Amino acid sequence: MENTFVNQIMSKNVLTVKVSETLEEVAKKMKEENVGCVIVVDKIATLGIVTERDFVTKIVAERKTPHTKIFEVMSSPLITIKSESTIWEAAEIMKEKSIHKLPVIEDEEIVGIITTTDIVRISSVGSDSQMRKICDQILMRMKDD
User: Fold this and answer.
1) Which of 18, 41, 43, 54 is most deeply buried (CB count within 10 A of its CB)?
2) C-alpha to C-alpha distances, 78 to 24, 97, 99, 110, nearest whole angstrom
C-alpha cells in the first residue's frame, strides 16, 4: 500500500455544484449521479465540500429548508491531496482531520476523490501475508501517535 498512489485508486466521478444552488437542487444531483459528496465552486475558486453525512448533521438535524443555499452548510476550507501522493499519506490526512472523503488535485484543479472505502478496498486486495503486513503497519503507526 505504501507504493500505491492516490491517482491509481481515486474515483474520477466528482460532482461540482455552484455556490448559489439550493440543498434541494444538490440532493437531486447527488441522487442522479449516485455520489456521496459534492464540491462547491464559484466562478474562480473551489470553496468547499458537502457530504451525505452533512445532510444528516448540518441539514436535517438543524432543520434547514430545501431552499437553503449549499454554501451555508459546506465544509471549508477544502482539504485536498495531490494525485501523486501515496495511499498512506491520504489515510494520514483523513485520520488527522477526521474526514472520509478527500478531493484529489493536479495543477490546482480537482481531478478525483478518494474515500475511506477506497482505502479499505485496496487494503483487502492481495494475499493473507500482504494483509498481515498492512495490519502490522497500521498498528505500528497507531502506537506512534
Assistant:
1) 54
2) 22, 11, 11, 11
Q: Are strands 109-115 and 37-41 parallel, antiparallel or unpaired?
A: unpaired
Spatial separation of the C-alpha atoms in residues 110 and 69, rounded to whole Å: 22
Residues 30-41: pLDDT tens digits? Answer: 999 999 999 999
Q: Chain-wide mean pLDDT for the chain?
A: 88
CA 136 to chain CA centroid, Å, is: 25
> What is the DSSP annotation of the chain?
-TT-BHHHH-B----EEETT-BHHHHHHHHHHHT-SEEEEE-SS-EEEEEEHHHIIIIIITTT--TTSBGGGT-B-SPP-EETTSBHHHHHHHHHHHT-SEEEEEETTEEEEEEEHHHHHHHHTSS-HHHHHHHHHHHHHHHHH-
What string of DSSP letters covers 57-89?
IIIITTT--TTSBGGGT-B-SPP-EETTSBHHH
